[in-house]
Structure formats: structure tokens, C-alpha cells
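Input C-alpha cells:
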């Protein structure tokens, strides 16, 4: 019995020691794992959290600064847009004023164009009047020539009639042929005198016309073109027209000497001194008629010359007036053209300024649109960063929850470890007491039962205190 008790006690002691070693190893392993987990969680997670927080703070500060800069740029561009809009409105008002001024300039320009057409028409009219004036200057000479040749032509037409009549007369009538020859000689002499007088009158007329026209027309010259000429009313023009027949020509009157001569030839002279008296009387009548005709023609020529001079003076006055009007119209036309050129330059400069302002406005709107797009992109990035930050915060929250769970598990494991250590100490104390009792029982017989009972109780308590391994 004594041999069995120590063997069983030694076996139980070995079992208890093995269990205690297992428990201690398990406790050491669990504590080591807990320490490693704490180190991992504390070092890596804290560093990661701090890095994430720094990154998030830097990103948020950068985004805030960039958004602040974008807002300032947008504010500046809005101010520039307002300034450009104000300039655009002012330029539009200036353009409207310039268009109004152009319309105001175009109205007198149209008037000037109408005046220019009138000037052209007046120049044409002046050319026509100058042609008429030349015709009027040439007309007196032509009229004088016609007046010179008309009586001679009439006399020459009547001479064949007078010469064909003596064939049917008697011998006493043959004496009248000498008288007829004398009358024809006188007639030719009177015609010659008439021609010389007409030449003298023509020379005097040309001299008077040149004297009247030279100081007026030569002084004015032909530099300016005249306008529409109108004959001014002269005081003697109506009287001259009443006195002169139409065309300025004088038809032969009833007391023409040809009629007297032809009458004398056709009737024939009576015999004796009556023939000489009649011949003398006929010669005197012819000379009186010729002188009267000459004086009438000279008066008519002088009247026509005076009328032409009056008309020329009127024409000169109208030419002077029209030339003054033409100079004034040219001056107004030049002023209007200069005003038009200045208005065109002003409109061109305003148009350039308007184009520049529109380009600046378009560029400002384009920059503003780009800024708006950039702000939209930044807003989207900010939203994405905020979502990412929310995810990180959720992960941090989950990690913190896991840390809290691990901390609670560690505390529970530490509590259980403390309990196990207390149980181990109690078991060690019991084991020590049992070893002491075994030693005593070995020396003292009869105490084996009590020792077995105590071992059983210790075994029961050891099995009760033994726990499963800690699982994290």
C-alpha cells in the first residue's frame, strides 16, 4: 500500500505539472499574440490614420485655396465683363450717334448731288447760251449782208422787164432809152453808195460791239463754268421788239426806188422839158428814198446793237451770279465731303473699338466658362474626395470598433489569465500541502485515506479549474 501511494501521487503530480506547464505555455503564447496585435494595431493603424488625416487636411486646404482663387478670378472676370458691357453700350451709343450724324451729313450730300446735277444742267445751258451768243454776234453781219444784197437783187430782177419793154415803143420813145441808161447808171451809183455806207456802218458796229464786249468778257475769262443763264429784262427790250420786225430784218417799204424807176420806165416820159423835170424829180426822189432808207437802217442797226449790248450785260450779270453760286456750291460740297470723311473715320474707329470690345467680351466669357467648368470639375473632385473621406472615416470607425473589440477581448483574456494564475497558485499551494502530507503519511501510518481523499478533492478541483485554450 505504501509503494502504490507514492507512485500514484507521483503520477498525479506529473499530470498536474504537465497541465500547469501547458497552461503557462498557452498563457505565454496568448500574451505574446496580444502584444503583437497591440503593436500592429497601435503602430501601423495610428501611422496610417495620421497619414490619411494629413493627406485629407492637405487636400481640403488645397481645394479650399484653389476654390478661393477661382472665386477671386471669377469675381475679377465678372467685373471685367461688367466694364466691357458698359464700354460696349457706350460704343453702341456712339455708333448710333455717328450713324445719325452720317444720315444728317447724307441729307446735305443728297442736296449737293442735286445741286451738282443742276450745275451740270446749267453748264450745258451755258454752252447753249454761249452758242446762241455767238450766233447773235454773227447775226448782225449776216443781216447786213442780206440787207445789202436784197435791193440789188430786186433791181436786177426788175432790169430784164424794163429792158424788154422798149421793143414795142416808137421812135420818140427811143430817146427815152438814153434816159433809161442814165437812170440805170444812177441806180448803179446809188447801189455803190449804199454798199459803201453799209460797209462803214458794219465797221462802226463791229467797233462798238468790240468796245462793249472787250472789258466785260475778257476780264472774266473762261475759268469758271457758268450756270443756267436767263435773259434779264432790259428797259428798252420791249420797245426794241415793238419797233423791230421779227428776225431783226427790215422788209422793203412801198416807197422803194425800184418801183419808181420801173414806173418811170414803163410809162415813158412826155415830150420836151417835162421829161427832164420828171427825170430830175425821179433822181431826187431816189436819192431822198435812199438817204431815208440808209438812215432808217443805220438807226435799226444801232438799236439792234444797243439791244445786243443790253442783253450781253444782262448775261454777264447772270454769269457772275451763277459763278458765285457755283463757287459757294463747290465750297459746300467740299465741306460736306470733309465732314463725310471725318464721319467715316469716326465710324471706322468706333467700329474697331466695338470689335475689340466684342473680342474682349468673348474672351472674358470664354475664360469665365472655363473657370465655371474648372469649378465644376473641382466640385466633382471635392465630392469624390469627400466620398473617399467618408469611406476612410467609415474604415477608421470600423477599425476603431475592431480595436475596441480587441481591447475588450484582451481585458477579458487578462482577467481570465489572472484567474488562471490565481488558480495555479492555489493548485501549487495545494500541491505543496499534499506533498507535505505525503511525506508525513510516509512517516505516519494510518493517514493514507485522508491523503487519498485530499488528492481526489484536488483532482476534482484541478479538473474544475482547467479551462479551454484562449482564442482571439
Amino acid at each position: 500500500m505504501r509503494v502504490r501511494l507514492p507512485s500514484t501521487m507521483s503520477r498525479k503530480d506529473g499530470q498536474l505539472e504537465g497541465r500547469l506547464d501547458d497552461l503557462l505555455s498557452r498563457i505565454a503564447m496568448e500574451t505574446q499574440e496580444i502584444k503583437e496585435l497591440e503593436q500592429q494595431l497601435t503602430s501601423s493603424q495610428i501611422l496610417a490614420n495620421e497619414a490619411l488625416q494629413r493627406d485629407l487636411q492637405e487636400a481640403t486646404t488645397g481645394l479650399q485655396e484653389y476654390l478661393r482663387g477661382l472665386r477671386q478670378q471669377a469675381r475679377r472676370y465678372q467685373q471685367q465683363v461688367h466694364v466691357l458691357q458698359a464700354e460696349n453700350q457706350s460704343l453702341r451709343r456712339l455708333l448710333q450717334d455717328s450713324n445719325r450724324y452720317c444720315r444728317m451729313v447724307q441729307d446735305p450730300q443728297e442736296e449737293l448731288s442735286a445741286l451738282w446735277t443742276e450745275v451740270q444742267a446749267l453748264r450745258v445751258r451755258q454752252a447753249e447760251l454761249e452758242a446762241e451768243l455767238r450766233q447773235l454776234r454773227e447775226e448782225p453781219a449776216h443781216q447786213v449782208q442780206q440787207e445789202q444784197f436784197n435791193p440789188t437783187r430786186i433791181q436786177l430782177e426788175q432790169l430784164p422787164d424794163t429792158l424788154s419793154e422798149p421793143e414795142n415803143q416808137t421812135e420818140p420813145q427811143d430817146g427815152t432809152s438814153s434816159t433809161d441808161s442814165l437812170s440805170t447808171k444812177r441806180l448803179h451809183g446809188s447801189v455803190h453808195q449804199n454798199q459803201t455806207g453799209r460797209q462803214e456802218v458794219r465797221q462802226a458796229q463791229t467797233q462798238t460791239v468790240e468796245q462793249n464786249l472787250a472789258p466785260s468778257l475778257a476780264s472774266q475769262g473762261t475759268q469758271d463754268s457758268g450756270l443756267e443763264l436767263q435773259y434779264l429784262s432790259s428797259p428798252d427790250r420791249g420797245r426794241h421788239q415793238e419797233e423791230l420786225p421779227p428776225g431783226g430784218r427790215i422788209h422793203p417799204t412801198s416807197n422803194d426806188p425800184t418801183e419808181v424807176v420801173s414806173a418811170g420806165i414803163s410809162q415813158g416820159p412826155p415830150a420836151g422839158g417835162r421829161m427832164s423835170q420828171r427825170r430830175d424829180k425821179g433822181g431826187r426822189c431816189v436819192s431822198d428814198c435812199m438817204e431815208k432808207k440808209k438812215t432808217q437802217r443805220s438807226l435799226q442797226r444801232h438799236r439792234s446793237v444797243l439791244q445786243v449790248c443790253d442783253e450781253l450785260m444782262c448775261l454777264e450779270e447772270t454769269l457772275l451770279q451763277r459763278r458765285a453760286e457755283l463757287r459757294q456750291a463747290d465750297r459746300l460740297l467740299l465741306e460736306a465731303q470733309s465732314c463725310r470723311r471725318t464721319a467715316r473715320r469716326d465710324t471706322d474707329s468706333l467700329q474697331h473699338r466695338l470689335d475689340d470690345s466684342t473680342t474682349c467680351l468673348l474672351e472674358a466669357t470664354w475664360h469665365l466658362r472655363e473657370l465655371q467648368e474648372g469649378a465644376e470639375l473641382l466640385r466633382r473632385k471635392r465630392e469624390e474626395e469627400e466620398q473617399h473621406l467618408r469611406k476612410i472615416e467609415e474604415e477608421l470607425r470600423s477599425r476603431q470598433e475592431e480595436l475596441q473589440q480587441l481591447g475588450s477581448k484582451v481585458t477579458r483574456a487578462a482577467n481570465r489569465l489572472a484567474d488562471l494564475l490565481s488558480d495555479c497558485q492555489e493548485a501549487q499551494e495545494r500541491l505543496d500541502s499534499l506533498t507535505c502530507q505525503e511525506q508525513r503519511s510516509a512517516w505516519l501510518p494510518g493517514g493514507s485515506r485522508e491523503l487519498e481523499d485530499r488528492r481526489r478533492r484536488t483532482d476534482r478541483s484541478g479538473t474544475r479549474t482547467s479551462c479551454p485554450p484562449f482564442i482571439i
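Helices lie at 4-164, 175-220, 237-243, 257-267, 273-443, 448-465. The two ends are 48 Å apart (CA to CA).
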